[in-house]
Amino acid sequence: MDQELDELLKWAAEHGAHDSVSAPLLHQAGHLPRQSRRNERRSCLETTLAVATFPEAGGRGLAATRDLTAGEALLAVPEQLLMTAKSARTDAILGPLLTRSPGLTSHQVLIVHLLHEVAKGAASFWRPYLLALPRVHHTLAHFSAPQVLHLQFPHAMEAARRARTEAHRDWAAAAPLLQDLGLPPKFRRFKAWLWAAATVTSRSVAIPFDSAGALCPVGDLFNYAAPSEEDQTARLTDGAFDAETRCFRFYARENYRTGQQVLLCYGAYRNLDLLEHYGFLLPDNPNDAVTILLPASLLPKAASFVHRIIG
Hints:
- The protein has 311 residues and is α+β, with helices and mostly antiparallel strands.
- The protein has two domains: 1-80 and 221-270, Beta-clip-like, CATH 2.170.270; 83-215, set domain protein methyltransferase, domain 1 (Alpha-Beta Complex), CATH 3.90.1410.
- 43% of the residues lie in helices and 13% in strands.
- It has helices at residues 3-14, 22-29, 34-40, 85-89, 94-98, 106-120, 127-132, 145-150, 154-180, 185-188, 190-203, 229-234, 271-277, 299-310; strands at residues 49-54, 59-64, 73-78, 204-207, 210-215, 223-224, 239-242, 247-251, 263-264.
- The chain has a three-stranded antiparallel sheet, with no helix packed on it.
- Helix 6 (106-120) crosses helix 11 (190-203).
- The longest helix is centred in the middle third of the chain and has 27 residues, at 154-180.
- The N and C termini lie far apart (54 Å).
- One of its GO terms (molecular function) is protein-lysine N-methyltransferase activity.
- This is SET domain-containing protein.
């Protein structure tokens, strides 16, 4: 395991993240002095999960360290570790400035929050998490004009151009705030915005109190699995925010054997959607589809054909 990842797991453990049942009880109840708790746990992954490499299935991910049952709790990440638009508003510098930028969306605020924390360097509370984030993304908004042409399919090329345009519009809207924050020039450039926006889009989890979601340290190490018909029928939950304990909790979506990669389902996406929002394609994606534009003269025949197929 690389040093940055090791530091991330240790930092998360110090602040209450865990993959066990007993650890949070001591941490939340305060039965042990803070220093004792810190010395006791060197990683938030101790009993259920471990970081592993899966070369043919997403690269780095999380493996089961014991047999797991569908629905079993896997990981809990306390709210204080989540990066959200809410935590942005509690920042001593960013918070007051946000009151002067009421037109920004929660999504834009979270991106600014991320850039602000990165610019803080060692002074950021989230420093161990930020150092472990990917430096490069491959979402559609990052595609250059020549790369867009390689997509070939008109609908895909239009999606890439639209993603780039929307990212530029968001950046322009937030530019005055980035300036007011006094961020160094490299953190105010469109290139930096693209990176931060892709980080938020590809790694955030859904939370009930903010439409932008939350960046979830350690929780974003899970790789993706497309939902099966059974998953969609049963409406299995991979993760949710627990309002009682103020933690984001992850659950096993199926049974896993020791050593298997534990996966999460973000939802049913076509490959083009996965590329746009997450920067990857899924071989044999059961939810993949393409848009075919038909001349108006063929629409009645096409409708009749579809009606016969679906009964």
